[in-house]
């Protein structure tokens, strides 16, 4: 059984932005792909959970990016389970270039949800215990609670469509990152890039919902973005990012 998992990727043209660099949303797809494949190897993958009425959902994620690969670059995504407690499974990852230099590093926490009740379940509900590597950390920084900000400005609205929905019948986590990139497009077109990002996922989003996005500048090149359901005003996610 491999406790550290690695997947190889070649950056495709449709995964890049106007400058030919990998979009952050595409990196999240890489991470999700590697995480799912490793979970399957550890007998805790999508098919294993489907049989017992459970799904994995991303709870929080934090990533630091040193450099972005470009179109046709070959990279490796390495991931491993770094810790667990009664409700959360923690998974770290690094993105490496062809010379094994770290381009990005991140940490994340995951919940098990009951597919009927959508309520969190204890990690020890799983038949096979998840092994962890506690002495190997991609990031030292903890996954903290994010504070809301009073000085928020509405920036866009989005109605959830067919293309947003994944195999778990809710919005895939990489879509949230694409929305965040859309919220800061003026910064990205000024050749700034996301260097640090934390996203806390607070509620599932389903087909047909409409979200309102709000932004606040904490200080120069440090932003807070959140989204809420336009009808219920329920907060859907919070994020904090640093540009550079």
Automatic annotation (TrEMBL):
Domain Acyl-ACP thioesterase N-terminal hotdog as annotated: residue spans: 4-123
Database matches in InterPro entries: Acyl-ACP_TE_C, Acyl-ACP_thioesterase_NHD, FATA/B, HotDog_dom_sf
Keywords: Fatty acid biosynthesis, Fatty acid metabolism, Hydrolase, Lipid biosynthesis, Lipid metabolism, Transit peptide
Protein name in the entry: Thioesterase
Start and end residues of each Acyl-ACP thioesterase-like C-terminal domain: 159-222
Family the entry assigns: Belongs to the acyl-ACP thioesterase family.
Domain of life: Bacteria
